[in-house]
Amino acid sequence: MASKDIKIGYIGLGSLGSAIFPNLIKYAQEQGLAPPSAWNRSQDKYAALNQEYPDIHTAKELGELVRRSNVIFTCLVNDAAAEDVYTKIVEILRSTPGGVQKGSIVFADQSTLKAKTALKIKEQVESAGGVYLTTTVFGQPPAARARQLVVVSSGDPKGRERVLPLLEAIGKKVIDVGDDNAKGAALKILGNSILLGAIELYAESYALSDAIGFDPAVFHELHKNLFAAPALLNYSNKISQGSFGDAGFTVKTGLKDAGHILSLGEELGHPTPLPTVERARQNLLKAVDLGAENLDWSALSIAARAEAGLEPFKEGTDNGKKKAAQ
């Protein structure tokens, strides 16, 4: 159970943040906590949020949220965005009259960042009196809405203890990685390397099955019975149908994460060849050239189809989205 003095803030209402934040609102209501606050650079989502949850506070300025909250989640699109937002946060903390009491405000960062970026932000936040945790998540927006995320937790031990009930409120499992933020960032990247590698293998295998005229639905049925892992089956299903949608983790974001995976070993002093991930990165780049930048990252499979001499997008789809029945 969370301490009753917790005041939740949430920064970053993208597709994932918008799916996570409502569960924190519900948790605050259940526990009798103050209504949470939210801030997003683009504020076009505020109206719908305020209509559904009239008690919450949607902040016009970042400083407004920081001053109202003492446990602040951030879910930002990339390292540059995270560094920009946290630079502003640190300036706000330092300008607080009388300063910030050390450890009184905890930041739980759900962004997928390079290990060195996480450590840089941690140092900046701590220098201003705050606590910075790496609390990345595994799962797409539907899993977030259903509280089925797998959540990673790393950083200051007292901070981890304080936010644990909140992490449990948004996911099915919390994996505690310990005190080192770099390890938390690394686990997210390592996990994504498995997912990206699996997507690449699915892309190649389904391209082969289509090239030889094998029914992809039957091939997917085999996957369902061999690999009962929801995350993998989701991608197998998308690729088998050639229908990707744009509500998940996009090709554009996948390229960012592929770069993080490929640089992780060198960053931490152990350069490691990753040929499968490199091939996946090349196919993501080709998918961008084929117009799939904003589709789910499983759309890298269109590059494998093209290489096999097939049409990139399957018949019956509209650029990777299901066509409406006529």
Automatic annotation (TrEMBL):
Looking at the record's lineage, which domain of life comes first?
Eukaryota
Q: Where do the coiled-coil regions begin and end?
A: none
Key words, A-Z? Oxidoreductase
Give start and end of each 6-phosphogluconate dehydrogenase NADP-binding domain. Answer: 7-178
Which Gene3D superfamilies did the record assign?
N-(1-d-carboxylethyl)-l-norvaline Dehydrogenase, domain 2, NAD(P)-binding Rossmann-like Domain
Which InterPro entries does UniProt cross-reference here?
A: 6-PGluconate_DH-like_C_sf, 6PGD_dom2, 6PGDH_NADP-bd, HIBADH-related, HIBADH-related_NP60_sf, NAD(P)-bd_dom_sf
Q: Which GO terms describe its molecular function?
A: NADP binding; oxidoreductase activity
Q: Residues in the active site? A: K188
Q: Does the keyword Oxidoreductase apply?
A: yes
Family statement: Belongs to the HIBADH-related family. NP60 subfamily.
* Entry protein name: 6-phosphogluconate dehydrogenase NADP-binding domain-containing protein
What is the protein's species of origin?
A: Papiliotrema laurentii
